[in-house]
Amino acid sequence: QLQMQESGPGLVKPSETLSLTCTVSGGSISNSLYYWGWIRQPPGKGLEWIGNIYYNGNSNYIPSLKSRVTISVDTSKNQFSLKLSSVTAADAGVYYCAREDSGYSSGWYDVWGKGTTVTVSS
Amino acid sequence: EIVMTQSPATLSVSPGERATLSCRASQSISGDLAWYQQKPGQAPSLLIYGASTRATGIPARFSGSGSGTEFTLTISSLQSEDFAVYYCQQYNNWPPMYTFGQGTKLEIK
């Protein structure tokens, strides 16, 4: 059974870079059937899609974050990562990694990590 | 950007009764819609994709319908474990620019 686990610092200073890693176990991140995504949730609010990546490194980002975000993949470690630069308080919240079906007309997330909470504070 | 609007924001229903949740897209998304359930302190979990296909292991009391801009999630007979927040998500764009609704909180009446 596929499992996903986010990891990274829970506290980031304003203007610095948030770095998170998602480790996939019980399956290969190189599986061509899937994309791998990041979704976040500000405290008490709804879900926001950040972006996704394919095992070959092809990535997509939400336009509002595109200038600050990078998603990368390390197939040797079965991990993918999120970097978000120049963070502000608006970037605080729970960050989830999740698996996305890559088939035609797909884009839903069927396996999620438990999420990791990021606080932005000096 | 495709804006997803869910209604109502909060829905109060008694156990055993039917709940109907709505999701509207700002432009046609065909059937490219998913529904998720989120309980407090937990990650969302997939209920429905393709507007009407139940995900693996989802009970038959959950059903989805709709296409174009209007979608509905129906829970036919509410169980205690169904009280949660529900989100819709569209995935109609290419390149991807997925968006979620703001959520509907389903609470016990």
- Largest beta-sheet characterization of chain A: 7 strands, mixed
Query: What's the Cα radius of gyration of chain A?
Result: 14 Å
Count every helix of chain B, treating DSSP H or I runs of 4 or more residues as helices: 0
Number of strands of chain B: 11
β-sheet strand percentage of chain A: over 45%
Q: What's the count of strands of chain A?
A: 11
Question: What global shape of chain A is seen?
Answer: globular
Low-confidence stretches of chain A: none
Identify the biggest protein-protein contact and residues per side: A-B, 22 and 28 residues
- Principal-axes shape call of chain B: globular
Largest sheet of chain B: 7 strands, mixed
Please identify the structural class of chain B as seen in this structure: mainly beta
The secondary-structure element order of chain A is EEEEEEEEEEE
Low-confidence stretches of chain B: none
Mean pLDDT of chain A: 96
> What is the string of SSEs of chain B from the N terminus onward?
EEEEEEEEEEE
If you compute it from the alpha carbons, what radius of gyration of chain B comes out, rounded to the nearest whole angstrom? 13 Å
Indicate the topology.
The complex is a heterodimer of chains A (122) and B (109).
Chain A: E1 3-7, E2 11-12, E3 18-25, E4 34-41, E5 48-53, E6 59-61, E7 69-74, E8 79-84, E9 93-101, E10 109-112, E11 116-120
Parallel strand pairs in A: 2-11
Antiparallel strand pairs in A: 1-3, 3-8, 4-5, 4-9, 5-6, 7-8, 9-10, 9-11
Chain B: E1 4-7, E2 10-13, E3 19-25, E4 33-38, E5 45-49, E6 53-54, E7 62-67, E8 70-75, E9 85-90, E10 99-100, E11 104-108
Parallel strand pairs in B: 2-11
Antiparallel strand pairs in B: 1-3, 3-8, 4-5, 4-9, 5-6, 7-8, 9-10, 9-11
